[in-house]
Amino acid sequence: MKSIHLKGVHINEQTMNTVSVAIKKNMTLQAIILEDAGITDEGALSLSIGLQSNTLIHSLSLPRNQLTSAGLEHIIDCLDVNQNLTDLDLRDNLITDIPSSLNTYLQTETSSIRSLLLNGNPLQARSVAQLLSSLSQNTSVLQLGVKLVRHYIVTILRCLSINHCFNHSRVNIGIR
């Protein structure tokens, strides 16, 4: 099996632990897609543990779940070990702040993330500005997805003009 794709199936913490064990054991697995599965921060912790053991997985897609900034922090924890994880889709969750550990990771030479999709999260403008600043030195991220409300644009534009971010990246910033 090369991928796990569950959409609209509620996964409780016990089931998430079972999924984590399966991820550890299946060394042919390349992609995990758990969309609209009710995954919480605790589920993200279980998933992160599995991703630390199986470093062959390159794509993690968790759109429309219950993840907060703490859940994102759990996912980031596996990135130092799993350097094959290149595509991270966390659209439409409950993430308000980008953890400093993600900003630090994106500034390292070992950063492997190519695609980081955060569209539909209630991200704070300052947090997005810090993310953009972190990416100003990054050469791995090719696609970033965020969606902002109009009054955040001044903060973001300040970041872009100060740091001259994204002269090498494809940026997808939606404005509503």
TrEMBL record:
The keyword Membrane does not apply. The keyword Repeat applies. Gene3D superfamilies: Ribonuclease Inhibitor. Keywords: Repeat. InterPro entries: Leu-rich_rpt, LRR-containing_regulator, LRR_dom_sf. Transmembrane segments: none annotated. PANTHER family: LEUCINE-RICH REPEAT-CONTAINING PROTEIN, LEUCINE-RICH REPEAT-CONTAINING PROTEIN 34. This is Uncharacterized protein.
